[in-house]
């Protein structure tokens, strides 16, 4: 396959590198092998007990990372084929906005997993069918696992944030049928900010036709409790208490903790995906998963159904990656990073007044300069005005 070389020494016929950059499967972190898709096959041990088989390649792990860090809604085959198509001269210039976003998915994914880019550039065509299959299964398993965990946890989160609501009595952790617009509380949380849930006619229309809640209209749960400002919809946007970033990325035991770090964070999805900061795509993914958890839908479909999750995800990405809102988005990401990755956020800080090492160097340089000035004065002789007086 005519593809540009990435400078890798990986021969075309060799097996793919382990996870992100390790050259051998044997060298991969054993802690990562604890997370598997339900479709992984088991093998039978000597005593007749089933035990999990170690994955032969890191491809399924890459698919999970694709879902949680970059793009959970585009088939990895389409992502990679869009990149290969873009290699043809003049092709990418004619790409639609959607194709450009999918191409950006490939760029972000291979930046996060360089080994994938190397493998795509060097692998024989015969290997691609298996690669596509494993990536897709990893992507699907991550999305489904997060959907399942949030289905139950979202009810606990609602009870903590809205203990006074009489609508809590009809919410069930296992049954989603009475969520969505059928419930006064989840209905208000899902209600587009452009509509007034307190209006009886609005509630009736949304219950009769839930698709009136457009994928381009932002719901109330995007905002902190009782803090939506219709005259400034940027205020508090995507800072709502129910946005389950902590639950998905740092673990179920951390979502209600101030710092968002659990004792088991070594094995959390953020660590397994080697995430060091919140990304625009991951925030859009969390918002999409949270919306589905609040709805009455039973199947989290990428497309089709009463609500188009894929379109909702991409509409958010469009905002988060819009250059016109770069300042607001950077402030938003900083806000999330301070809660999920406080140590990493401090490491990336440019505030020199808070950097003790920088202050130490500044003071040392000042002392050195003062000593040098004192030495120069001793050897420079009398000042010019004093020299004139001596004459």
Q: Can you give a write-up of this model?
A:
The protein has 391 residues and is mostly helical. It has helices at 59-70, 76-86, 97-112, 114-122, 128-161, 184-190, 200-208, 245-250, 269-272, 280-294, 309-320, 326-340, 342-347, 356-379, 384-390, and strands spanning 42-44, 50-52. It contains 15 helices and 2 strands. Strands 1-2 form a two-stranded antiparallel sheet. Strand 1 and strand 2 (50-52) form a beta hairpin. Helix 2 (76-86) crosses helix 3 and helix 5 (128-161) packs across helix 10 (280-294). The longest helix is centred in the middle third of the chain and has 34 residues, at 128-161.
Keywords:
391 residues, mainly alpha, two-stranded antiparallel sheet, 15 helices, globular, disordered N terminus, disordered C terminus
Structure described in brief:
This protein has 391 residues and is mostly helical. The protein has helices spanning 59-70, 76-86, 97-112, 114-122, 128-161, 184-190, 200-208, 245-250, 269-272, 280-294, 309-320, 326-340, 342-347, 356-379, 384-390; strands spanning 42-44, 50-52.
Would you spell out the secondary-structure blueprint of this structure?
Blueprint: E1 42-44, E2 50-52, H1 59-70, H2 76-86, H3 97-112, H4 114-122, H5 128-161, H6 184-190, H7 200-208, H8 245-250, H9 269-272, H10 280-294, H11 309-320, H12 326-340, H13 342-347, H14 356-379, H15 384-390
Antiparallel strand pairs: 1-2
Helix pairs in contact: 1-5, 1-10, 2-3, 3-4, 5-10, 10-11
